[in-house]
Amino acid sequence: MKALSKIVGLAAVFAALTSCHNKQEPNYQYFPNMYESVAYEPYVESAAFSNGKEGQLPAKGSVPRGFTPYEYANTPADYERAKAELKSPLDSTQVDLKKGEELFTIYCAICHGDKGDGKGNLAKREKFAGVPNYKDRVITEGSIFHVETYGLNMMGSHANQLSQEERWQVAHYVMKLKSEL
Amino acid sequence: MSSHYEAPIRKPLIIGDKSYHDVTVDVARPVEGRANKQWWIAFTIALAAFLWGVGCVAYTVGTGIGTWGSNKTIGWAWDITNFVWWVGIGHAGTLISAVLLLFRQKWRMAINRSAEAMTIFSVIQAAMFPVFHMGRPWLAYWVMPIPNQFGSLWVNFNSPLLWDVFAISTYLSVSLVFWWTGLLPDFAMLRDRAITPFTKRVYSILSFGWSGRAKDWQRFEEVSLVLAGLATPLVLSVHTIVSFDFATSVIPGWHTTILPPYFVAGAIFSGFAMVNTLLIIMRKVSNLEAYITVQHIELMNIVIMITGSIVGVAYITELFIAWYSGVEYEQYAFINRATGPYWWSYWLMMTCNVISPQVMWFKKIRTSIMVSFIISIVVNVGMWFERFVIIVTSLHRDYLPSSWTMFQPTFVDAGFYIGTIGFFFVLFLLYSRSFPVIAQAEVKSIMKTSSEKYKKLHESHDNHSHSEHNHH
What we know:
Strand content of chain B: under 5%
Number of helices of chain B: 17
Oligomer: heterodimer
Structural class of chain B: mainly alpha
Low-confidence stretches of chain B: none
Mean pLDDT of chain B: 91
Shape of chain A: elongated
Structural class of chain A: mainly alpha
Strand content of chain A: under 5%
Distance between the termini of chain B: 21 Å
Number of strands of chain A: 0
Low-confidence stretches of chain A: none
Radius of gyration of chain B: 24 Å
Order of helices and strands of chain B: HHHHHHHHHHHHHHHHH
Number of strands of chain B: 0
Helix content of chain B: over 70%
Mean pLDDT of chain A: 89
Largest sheet of chain B: none
Largest interface: A-B, 3 and 3 residues
Order of helices and strands of chain A: HHHHHHH
Distance between the termini of chain A: 83 Å
Largest sheet of chain A: none
Helix content of chain A: 40-55%
């Protein structure tokens, strides 16, 4: 009986010692030797930079390897120019409509609808109005790419979500949807 | 008495006209008396050395292993040298209490208690080196195969360093149990003699309620024999495993199949030397000269001589095999030991370990307490250098000449070592004032066969009966 009470007492002490983890805060750590990064990891805050952010903007005019600068400006005139003359760099073997469909479903269908008829989920729930049907608009692959890159009216730029190649795949898929409407 | 026969050639193991009560009184005296000034001086020095060692260890753990003299080539130096040295010293205790028990050596009874204490205290010292030579000693528990949250990540059982963990921890726990079991009747004796309520209480707890009934004694003897039977293979395997740290490597000078028995022989050699060092002092300061006799010291010197010769044979075997192997790395390793930058440590080792025990062939020398004391210290210096030579000279010159280098210990290396010596003596000095340093129950069991008093009695009785016989 005496031994039992000792065991219970020990268990209680142990429980008290181990139960002080606050769920609102990170837990206690035992010798966090290589837990915190010595190197700068992406997105961390750092006093080493003037704006406190690890992600610093590249120098203006620099071109990374594998990237082609987009030569059209974000203006109505260049929109028209792109619509008229900009052509997809992808030949028929590189166009991947399946990939275009996947990307469209992820990034576009929420407003434009799976069929491109302007009846996406947000439009149906009347979160906002004015999403056009592709059928009603004059669009070319060049204008689609331009709008994806810069956005137009309500729509924002998707250049940070989709690479150039992906935007062309989506443009090809949008043209296919338009032809089916 | 007529049923008893012991060869008259055997010299008495208990000198003087001792009765059972005299044994009790003699063993209890250091425990029941007060410490004298010399004890306090010795204790203070040991404690200071210990605390200095604690400081050095704290500095090492707090700052890093780079405070030591080890480098990229010589990753093991004083740390493992001292580890192997302390483990080796510990082996004599088990040898004396277990192996000599199996061989029915009655002379072990006066020395086994202190030898076992020495084992336990030196294994404690040894065990500190594997922990504190780690870069991250706070993760030392990872060497244990404990189920865990890393997908139950386990240890690799192929490393002799892991076997070391099991060997040393098993060795320490078995030795401790063996020692404590033997202490029960002696603690009971102190309990029954206690005058103050405090000592009464302390020795009541320590003696586990030993009452010395026939059944208790019968089981006590069986347990001792079983533990001796278990401790004997253990003691051989522990130092074998320690030697595997080197023998299983690919380093020329380390990769040798002779290392296991050679290390064990060296362990017995240095361990017995340490027992001799301690007991020569103890018999004097604790007035136990009647029990730890010159014969005991002579017998230990003989063990030292035999194991020293085994070690000598091992040295020669290593040299022969190096030459015979035709492996230039192996040959160079031994040329480097004898003539390289650490030649002095090699020749110091050779002198201390091979030549010094050979003087024991002379009876005059091996029965001289003064010489035995000096030789016992010389042997331990030599055995320290043996481990140093094996470890450092093999590492500092091996396959790639571009990684040849030297080793220079720092004060932290030395401080840790001094600290363990201090800690050992702190424990041993405390032990010698609170524990019965002679297994009085065992000594009493040989009283009627091996004490001077009873031997004389037998002799006169025998002569008497002879003359009676003649008269008829």
